[in-house]
Amino acid sequence: MSEAGAQRSSPGVLKEPACGPDSPIVRGTAGGRWGRVWDWLRRASARISIRLLAFNMLLVFLPAAGLLYLDTFERQLLIEQERSMVQQGRLLAAALSSGAALDQAAATLVLERLDMRLDARIRIVDRDRNVLADSSLLGPSRRGGEEASGEELSARRYWSYRLGALLYRAYVRLFHSRPESPEPADLYVSATRAAGPEVQAALDGRYGATTRISGGGQRSVNLYSAIPIRSGGQVIGAVLVSQSTFRILQSLYEVRIDIFRVFLVSVAAAAMLSLLLSTTIAHPLKRLRSQAGAILDRRGRLTGHFKGSRRSDEIGDLARALEELTRRLEERMRLVEAFAADVSHEFRNPLAAIRTAVEVLQEVEDPGERRRFVAIVEREVARLEHLLADAREVARIDAGLHEEPPQPVALNALLEDIVSGYRLRLGDRCEFEVSAPREPVLVRSSPERLTQALENLLDNGVSFSPPRGKIRVTMAVDRRTTTIAVSDQGPGIPEQHMSRIFERFFTCRPDADRSAGDHTGLGLSIARSIIEAYGGSIRAANNAGGGATFTIELPLSH
What we know:
The chain is of the alpha+beta class. Helix content is 48%, strand content 15%. The N terminus is likely disordered.
């Protein structure tokens, strides 16, 4: 290690009160031909995540970068000052190494020839530590010497310095123990002796260095470097170079004041950003919370809905999602209430018929009449059982259809199996004609539920077709969907009932079939619920030559 690179024990100039670090503010502009880029940046900055990221970068990352910059700046200044002092001492030691012993007159002559062109204070010491020559005694003191420590820092007149120093001292008292101070400079009060440990190190043939606090009105730190003077392989004395860090302290405080001012501006910007976040995040969230508390009454019924928002950030997305949620909940509640009313209405008719038949049975004596009324009771009980089974099935589909995991289903093969079962079961009652592709047509659904939906459509066609009527099943495929059309030769759907054909408990049949207990008006409704649950659609239309066609569309599985 070179003499200039030797490490000092305690460079105290770094530990003076600091004004606090920060970093410069980077500004960006956009406009004109950068319009699209600016629009993208504006939309991106509207996101809460981007705002929070900018806030954290401002308060956490950039101040840390400022601290690192100050440490590097200070270390470089100290290294450069020490290197300069060592070079001055080495030049003087080389000039004085020509004789066998040091002479006071020669030493004084060398310092006089320098004509005070050096910034440091220089002492020439013999083997007995006697000061032979002192540059401070040969002329006016230079600004860089120890005497400069009595000057007042110009930075002290700034209010930002006083505020920063106050905050720093409070921080040190709260979180840090008091650091050890360098030894005082009283060791060199006497001008005739130099008894410091750095001088002893130089007289022993080594490089000596130490740091001391100067006296005076402005306390600063003095750096001391001692270089041995050799002649004929022997150490005959030492050159002691000392210099105040006042100029470094002055420069460093100026930088700290500038950084502290930027820090204050950053704090003000952070406060404004916090207020902005408060108004753009906290207040809308409070408004959503208030709306959430107001849309439900004490019985848990929806009495209102969330209001949407035009905001383009996550809160706007949340407000619109909640608005859509409450809308769908309202629709769901209306459907549940309508279903309960429909079930109650459908149960009322068979119950009324049963009650009437039972009351009449108590008064009728004729065995034939009694058998007829008992048959009415049995028929209505069977109708109630059928209604209960279908209502339970509807409730089960609505509650658990989405919980059944869909899987790839070969729709054409499934359709062939269903129609084959109907041909075996019905015989000559109806004729089935199927047209489907031979290649597998895959859709994602539950095979049991899809079978249930197709059977309901076939049952509906069979119930309306005349004896030996034809039911045509056609399947077509395009790039994204597959279509299944079930056509019958029945009377068709009256135009005034076309919009209600998929409603629950709605049925429109000839007079001869109205009393049949196996038609509850739930088959088409169940089919629609199943098809729509798997992303498909179903519609009904009348054929030109008579009869009706029900068309299913389902997305293909890719």
